[in-house]
Design a protein that fits this description.
It is a single chain. This protein is α/β, with parallel strands linked by helices. The protein is elongated and about 55 Å long. It has two domains: 122 residues, 3-Layer(aba) Sandwich (Rossmann fold), CATH 3.40.50; 64 residues. A five-stranded parallel β-sheet has the order 3-2-1-4-5, with helices on both faces.
Length: 200
């Protein structure tokens, strides 16, 4: 394999959105149901993830709608401090360094990525990043995989993509990239070994 492409959330960084919703509900005096309904029924989070609105604009919209009187910095921590590390997967990714190129392909937002790059030093070690809010595309849209191949000069048949969501894996496979449906580090390691990446 020429390259291994990692999803971020629930592959390298497990996350729990409920933590953010609970903290924001408590901070604003709203119910958890109100916060969850807002996220589901308004287009703002999707727009943020696609880069259609800037992080500051998103903050001002949500702060106004929930009468949140804190700073952007406080809001960003409430919204983003939801991640933990999968140390086995991070170690696996580290052992691949020097053996093949390693990339991140994630549906995410500028708010989360600012936090992640600041919190987790290992994130700075990858060879490149395709982030939905920067390219205006979401997995499993085939165009985001095509952008990944084109930007990094990759051959689809010599690349493998790892994601915890099967639809995203199938999206990669549709353009000729090998796909691994991630469930745990051991299973992903075994699948990589089948593709000729052994000893990790």
């Amino acid at each position: 394999m020429e390259a291994v492409i990692f999803d971020l959330g629930n592959v390298l960084l497990p996350f729990n959105w409920g933590l953010a919703a609970e903290r924001f509900a408590l901070r604003t005096g709203r119910s958890l149901r109100e916060v969850d309904d807002y996220i589901v029924t308004t287009p703002f989070l999707n727009d943020l993830t696609l880069g259609r609105i800037a992080k500051d604009e998103y903050f001002h919209v949500v702060a106004k709608d929930f009468e949140f009187d804190g700073s952007y910095e406080e809001f960003a921590v409430i919204w983003s401090d939801i991640f933990t590390t999968d140390d086995e997967m991070i170690a696996l990714a580290s052992r691949l360094k020097g053996r093949c190129r390693r990339y991140i392909l994630s549906n995410t937002s500028a708010i989360h990525m600012d936090f992640i790059f600041a919190r987790y030093p290992f994130m700075h070690t990858f060879d490149g990043y395709i982030l939905s809010h920067e390219v205006g595309l979401l997995k499993p849209d085939r165009r985001i995989y095509e952008v990944t191949l084109q930007r990094f000069g990759l051959t689809a048949s010599e690349a493998v993509f790892i994601d915890d969501i099967l639809a995203n894996v199938e999206g990669a496979r549709a353009v000729g990239i090998h796909g691994i449906h991630h469930r745990n580090a051991q299973g992903t390691r075994e699948e990589l070994t089948k593709l000729g990446i052994a000893g990790i």
